[in-house]
Amino acid sequence: MNAQGETLIDLGAIAKTLDNGGLARTVSVKEGQSLFIQDDPGDALYLVKSGTLEANIFASSGKKLSLNIMQPGDVIGEIAVLDGGPRTATVTALEDAELARVDRTTLIDQMRRNPDIALELIQILCGRLRWISQQVEDMALLNTEKRLARRLILIARKFSDEKGHLNLSQSELADFLGLSRESTNKILQGWRSKGLIGLARGSIAIVDYVGLTKIAEFQEP
């Protein structure tokens, strides 16, 4: 599962393609460096081999919306590489990362030769579409507190440590929902006073998972 709450797909055909006969090359991205920028040409597909990266979109005003966090096993750049359009987001390394990179022309050729590759990419795209549909539904039907609770739970399920601590600042959490830090802080402080979470500089811990799940109105998987 990634930060979008998606269960990762078995990428056997894609992984074999990337590792087969020099079709892919390994690229390294240093912490803070961008793999690509929003509106760049969609000339390659990437598979994360190590490290963590974040996908963001930016408005002309500079406002940032965080879309997802990718870890080893995640595919990056499938939309633009399939339709030939520009990149839909900026992807930046949160820590040093290595990725397998396959050029668009090579990928399209391999898809024609091996339908399993196309099927896996379709599954990835369907997962993205389901996620977007859920976000639209949440924005239309849920208040800010419920949306914030849902996103915090999804991120914590994947990225919290063994003690339940999540290395995520309030500003970073706000960026995932397009909220201001002030409104996010107000909700988090309320949860802390109720014993639902713990707060420290640059980190959040879910103390009462059941209570926060009730706020989020989540159905447990």
Automatic annotation (TrEMBL):
HTH crp-type domain span: 142-210
Annotated TM spans: none
Protein name as annotated: Crp/Fnr family transcriptional regulator
Molecular function, one GO term: DNA binding
Matching CDD domains: CAP_ED
Species for this entry: Hwanghaeella grinnelliae
Keyword Membrane part of the UniProt annotation: no
Gene3D superfamilies with a match to the protein in the record: Jelly Rolls (2.60.120.10)
